Amino acid sequence: QVQVAESGGGLVQAGGSLRLSCIVSGLRFDGSYMGWFRRVHGKEREWVSCISRRGRDTYYADSVKGRFTISRDNYQKILYLQMNSLKADDTAIYYCATGYSGDNCNKAAAFNYWGQGTQVTVSS
After folding, report:
1. pLDDT tens-digit profile of 84-118?
2. d(CA 98, CA 110)
3. Is 109 strand, coil or helix?
């Protein structure tokens, strides 16, 4: 059984930083692209970032480019999202995704397994 678990969310002031983590079990960790998505209450899920299997290639939504950094530790089997210069607009539930099917990694439909999400709240 595949399990995906995010952690690291919380409340932070605008301009601050948080680091999200994602642990996966039941699936070969380095066998899949992985991604971060977020959902603001009442809105569609939004792609944030994704990373290739070995971590060599990373991709970012324009809204977070230059502020967020995705990385992975295939030995520890952890996916990270370092979030700096946080803004109130970054407030959302952040989801980790894996089980990549081969479509564009900026599409939620490209991933088969999701965590429950971790809440990030940025106060202005």
Report:
1. 999 999 999 999 999 988 879 999 999 999 999 99
2. 9
3. helix
